[in-house]
Structure formats: C-alpha cells, structure tokens
Amino acid sequence: GGGGVVVGRPQREERIKATTVGLGTDNVMLNSMNMFAEMEFASKAFLHDDLKVLEMATLNNAKILGVDNELGSIAAGKHANLLIINNRSHNLFGTQSIISSVVRRARPDDIVLVTHGGQVLRLARLKALFVITAEDHKTRAATRAQTCNGESAPG
Asked: What is the pTM of this model?
C-alpha cells in the first residue's frame, strides 16, 4: 500500500544534493600540482558542468574546511585571494565562455598575478586580464576585465 515510511538509503539524487564535493591535488610524486589539469579532467570525465567544477575547486573547498565565511568567493568581508589570468594567452585567446575556458583550457603559465590576503605574489605586464571567481551572488561566476595600468577596460 501507499503512504508508508520508506526504510533504507536515501535516493541517489538526495545523497548527491546533500554532499559537498571539493577538488584538489596532492600528486607531486608523478605529476605537478596543477589544479587546472584537475579541473579539466573532472569536467571532461565526470561532470560536463564547468561552473560546478570551478565551484568544487574554490567555494566547495572552503565549505568543506569550514572557512567559507572567509574564503572561496568574492564578497565584502572575505579575504581577497585571487588568480588573475591572461585571456590573450595561446590557451585562452578568442574565448567565448571564460568559465569553460578556465576550467578546460587554462594552464598555470596563464596566471599573471596572484593575490593572497591583499598582497601581490606574482605579476606580469599584460594589456587585458580577467579576474575569475567561483561565485558572485548574482551571477555565481563573475568576470571583470582590467588593464595593468589602471585604466578601465573597454566595454
């Protein structure tokens, strides 16, 4: 009959919704520690959802560690830890979807600037840069063009 209590494991979809999956690497014995390669593999082999993969590499890791109120996305009061990527590199030139391109095509040598806690750690002079983040409260993935000399980017 209907209406009874279901005993057993939750349905697959319920288990997936209740699970936070992070993405990382520690494979220094066989490969370099390359999060771009990890994101590319996860996207192509499993998810085919590039925004979810980017979230797994950023915001989800912060959630798992219990520091998502401080890290993992760009928001007022959070630490400003950013990678700025050259959208004119051989890997990213002509990009139609910056999120998909970062997840599937970007490489460590595309990084031109890293900030951690407001401190600049790596810088290269380029005309146009993209700031990539996993989540913006309205778009869930914000991109913003900047120039190295402080002028506003066109468009």
From this structure: 0.66
